[in-house]
Amino acid sequence: MLKEYSPPRPLSDMISLQPAFSFQDGTWFGVLVDNKDRLIACAFSDEKGTVERNLSDYSERTMGKHRGMSEHRYLEEMIRIFRGQEPQSRVQFGREQNTSFQTKVYAVLDRIPRGRVTNYGLIAKAIDSGPRAVGQAVGSNPYPLFVPCHRVVPVDMTVGNYSMSRAPRHSRPDVKKGLLEREGIPFQGERILPGALWTPG
């Protein structure tokens, strides 16, 4: 039976939400942090406007009401992960906007080892749910790269779709393949080799 999925809840209880942006490697990166320096959401795209709109989905405030910070350590960590490098510091997450089901799915994503992938069906089996509901939660991940949704692939071991901005029309499977290759995932043509498959325990 599929679990009920709900969109992100507004963050009206947050005292302050502050965005920060950086342009590296031909890509815009953005993070949204709260007054406790917790990561509320992040996004990356080849267009800054897409990143701004994406982060604004997690706040009732518009991005124009805040002056973006020029630097934040979460940006540095995000860029490191994008480049295939290990993060150097711990990230604190603000999870109030997530549903209980999303939190359960993201806990599994957090456990996918670097250099391995899993699929929607295996995650669904591990949490007693359905692949479609898992796919919706994975596609709504507010912490891309930090919570590695890019390590979830279809059962046929192709890369599948990947939206940096959580919108199907912005699907970039080439970006997802690049992320996986930089993390050491072995490919044969367009398919991931079976030895890279990880099964949630």
List the helices and strands and how they pair.
Blueprint: E1 17-24, E2 27-34, E3 39-45, H1 48-56, H2 73-82, H3 100-111, E4 118-119, H4 120-127, H5 131-139, E5 152-153, H6 173-182, E6 187-188, E7 191-192
Parallel strand pairs: 4-5
Antiparallel strand pairs: 1-2, 2-3, 6-7
Helix pairs in contact: 4-5
Concise synopsis of the structure shown:
With 201 residues, the protein is an alpha+beta fold. The chain has 6 helices and 7 strands; from the N terminus they run βββαααβααβαββ.
CATH class of the largest domain: Mainly Alpha
Basic shape:
globular
The total count of strands amounts to 7
What share of residues are in beta strands?
Answer: 15-25%
N/C terminus separation: 21 Å
Supply Rg. 16 Å
Specify the number of helices: 6
Q: How would you classify the quaternary structure?
A: single chain
Can you tell me the CATH topology of the largest domain? Answer: Arc Repressor Mutant, subunit A
Largest sheet features: 3 strands, antiparallel
Task: Detail the poorly predicted runs.
Answer: 1-6, 61-65
Q: CATH superfamily of the largest domain, called what?
A: Winged helix-like DNA-binding domain superfamily/Winged helix DNA-binding domain
Q: What CATH architecture of the largest domain would you give? A: Orthogonal Bundle
Whole-number tally of structural domains: 2
Residue-averaged pLDDT: 87
State the helicity in percent bands. 25-40%
